[in-house]
Design goal:
This protein has helices at residues 25-34, 65-80, 85-95, 99-113, 118-122, 131-143, 146-202, 209-242, 246-256, 263-283, 288-297, 302-316, 321-328, 333-345, 348-404; strands at residues 3-9, 15-21, 38-44. The protein is mostly helical. Helix 7 (146-202) packs parallel to helix 15, helix 10 packs across helix 11 (288-297) and helix 14 packs antiparallel against helix 15.
Length: 405
Amino acid sequence: MPAFSYKALDTRGKQKQGVVEADSARAVRQQLRERGLTPLAVDTASDKNGKGTASPLGSKGSLSVPDLALVTRQISTLIQSGIPIERALAATAEQSDKPRVKGMMIAIRSKVMEGYSLAESLGEFPKAFPRLYRSTVAAGEHAGHLDLVLNRLADYTESRQAARQKIQLAAIYPVILTVVALAIVVFLLTYVVPDIIEVFVKQGHELPVLTRGMLSVSDFLASYGIYIALLAIVAGVVFKLSLRKESNRLRFHRSILHLPAVSGMTRGVNTARYASTLSILTTSGVPLVEAMKIAGEVLSNDYLRLRLREAAQAVSEGGSLHKSLENTGYFPPMMLHMIASGESSGELDSMLERTANMQENTLQAKIQALVGLFEPLMLLVMGGVVLIIVLAIMLPILNMSNLVG
């Protein structure tokens, strides 16, 4: 029985929306009238290729990472308890208090009831369940270990969310500190310094070199600061638009992988993500070449993604995994040695999982070290700038005191 999403008005004129199962849209309207609702719109609760109704299902049927992890864990637990898939989906829909999640579960259950596999049914919502997710579920269904695969997916989704939150939390304080420091410096230079120094200028005293330089900077910011800010915004917009062209984007992403200041972090983030994704796919039964293609698509760097497509092609032609990854030039030697050891011993799945954990731990340790180093450096720079401003103000006062004395 297909699922339909609806919008309707109750007797008080308040809009209602939700998802119901029925034989046809006409039957849905009849159900709504029987419940005292006036139907406004009824459509199939599907989002394939971004189409279908989106009102109760959110923006194009998307799911947040916490919602995806929760749904996956609930379905996995129910299936492990021996409950059939269709009943597990129905129970998950009833458990959720979010119309978007409830609508998706009902629509997926309807597809399963029509004879489609769970992976095919999840394909109705590609924004919520990406290719990585669907391929892993398909491998679990084929191997007959859907509950175990869903557990791995839930663990993977939750660990990715936890890692993302750690990075975001670690970045909050440095960002706030930088913004506040810049705001204080601009305020001092544009408002405080000119008013104080103007007193000495009116009295005809010759200003020290440092004070004159600070006054020039202050005048420049007061006169052209707004234009500099607008120019920076325009440059940012133009740069972002230029990245829409694939050739420009590839050149920029390649340069990021080689810049001394950011290349290590960029490589670490992307290789860690690739290793963890490849691990969950191979341990779930997805063939290695297919797993490499899917894992490469989750990377944020387009140039590295292109190189990994070439690596997947080399493996499909008979090459080894570690050699193909080594040829990209962006994977750390330790990771390559561990993968080579896994290939030679026939334990590639477990070795991929181990190297994925190692990469994630190394990346988080590096981020924490950088954040810990940034805070004292920022305080030192801020203290130095404030010291220069204070000296520029105090030097005329000291000179005046010497003259009076």
